Amino acid sequence: MNLNIDVKQPEERYSVMTLVGEVDAFTAPKLKEELLPLTQAEEAVVEVDLAAVNYMDSTGLGIFISALKSAKEYGATLKLTHMQERVYRLFKITGLTEIIDIDTSVKEGGS
Length: 111
What we know:
Blueprint: E1 3-11, E2 14-23, H1 28-39, E3 45-56, H2 58-74, E4 77-81, H3 85-93, E5 101-102
Parallel strand pairs: 2-3, 3-4, 4-5
Antiparallel strand pairs: 1-2
Helix pairs in contact: 1-2
């Protein structure tokens, strides 16, 4: 499976990244390459829509941890939204729900 990444910037310093596919060891470098620069703008707000991500492994979690560290370093905000239940469980099990801003309106199901 591949990962499609779409970034829109409806306002200055506000980006919405929509991911479609799987976030794993194969696709994570592409995600990191596109996500980290968005978090490196002073006071930026970066929202990542995960509605169409039905699989993520630990490599993907690592990317989001890196993005969170980068955001904090630059005074930016990182928010993850619309997670499917199986992806949310991964964040919950690892305790990342306590440190990353996650929109709790979790999408049910997903295949």
